[in-house]
From TrEMBL:
Similarity section: Belongs to the AfsR/DnrI/RedD regulatory family.
Organism: Actinoplanes xinjiangensis
DNA-binding interval(s): 1-102
Classification via SUPFAM superfamilies: C-terminal effector domain of the bipartite response regulators, TPR-like
Top-rank taxon: Bacteria
Designated name of the protein: DNA-binding SARP family transcriptional activator
InterPro entries listed in its UniProt record: AfsR-DnrI-RedD_regulator, BTAD, OmpR/PhoB-type_DNA-bd, Sig_transdc_resp-reg_C-effctor, TPR-like_helical_dom_sf, WH-like_DNA-bd_sf
Length: 285
């Protein structure tokens, strides 16, 4: 069984898709897929499907969706009764709810988390080549916004927000590793696009400032800070954080030791991971 949630929802068994096309059954599958290996309570499914009031037959309708999913899984196998029994094992009824049993190696979100953890471990010991590679492997699993084609209720909204935050964190850490490896020239285009998307993300702005400065474009680095300052003041009434202001001052002071610059950048990006404010959402990691 293969499950993909980091983009459009996809689910296949023996190479055949069993993902339904109707909205509510897809929501049920998404809930089960995101929590594969754990029981999803019937009440959680009902709240997700009908957040503004459940119908009287809600439990029966959920049972119907589960039966339909099992039938779709069974059709992916060729052996009649044994296929139906296997489908019950893969989508099990347990006290209080249902559990989708899929191998962890075939669930993209589990693999994303494993690669991310490997990247963080490598980064902690200073192996930035391995960290960059692991973070890159994690990011390649994304095919778009998480569950971008699924109708979401309150539970999936929280799950998707968590996943998107994790994606941005991994992206931030991969760029950090690449900058430490001296890849500032290669990062300029990507960072410029990201800073345009996340206009008040201080960590990404600090990365762009450093990449520009190291590429001999101190004026552009200072200008990037100015744009962030304007956005923060104009949209949110906030000043840039103290570490980012220090990075800006360090860049203005020509002839400063590069160690001062690296220290200021490190402080600014660390602070930026805890103080992320954008025009579209507020994040705290």
């Amino acid at each position: 069984m293969e499950i993909e949630v980091l983009g459009p929802l996809a689910a296949a068994h023996n190479g055949t898709s069993f993902a339904p096309t109707a909205g509510k059954p897809r929501t049920v599958l998404a809930m089960l897929a995101l929590h594969a290996g754990s029981v999803v309570a019937v009440d959680q499914l009902i709240t997700e499907l009908w957040p503004h009031g459940r119908p009287r037959s809600a439990k029966t309708i959920v049972q119907t969706y589960i039966l339909s999913l099992r039938n779709r899984i069974a059709r992916c196998r060729p052996n009649g009764d044994s296929s139906r029994a296997a489908a019950k094992g893969l989508l099990a009824t347990l006290p209080g709810g249902y559990q989708l049993n899929a191998p962890e190696a075939r669930i993209d979100v589990v693999q994303f988390e494993k690669f991310a953890c490997a990247g963080h471990r490598a980064r902690e010991i200073g192996d930035f080549i391995a960290a960059s590679r692991a973070f890159s492997d994690a990011l390649t699993l994304w095919r778009g916004g998480a569950l971008m084609d699924v109708q979401r209720g309150p539970h999936l909204d929280v799950d998707v927000q968590r996943l998107e935050e994790a994606r941005l964190n991994v992206l931030d850490c991969r760029i950090d590793a690449d900058l430490r490896l001296g890849r500032h020239h290669e990062l300029l285009g990507e960072l410029s696009a990201l800073v345009s998307q996340y206009r008040t993300h201080e960590g990404l702005c600090a990365h762009l400032m450093l990449a520009l400065y190291r590429s001999g474009r101190r004026d552009a680095a200072v200008n990037a800070y100015g744009k962030l300052h304007t956005c923060l003041i104009g949209e949110l009434g906030l000043e840039p954080s103290a570490p980012l202001r220090r990075l800006h001052r360090t860049m203005l002071a020509s002839g400063r030791d590069t160690q001062d610059l690296d220290t200021s950048w490190h402080e600014a990006t660390t602070e930026g991971r805890h103080r992320i404010v954008t025009g579209d959402f507020v994040r705290g990691r």
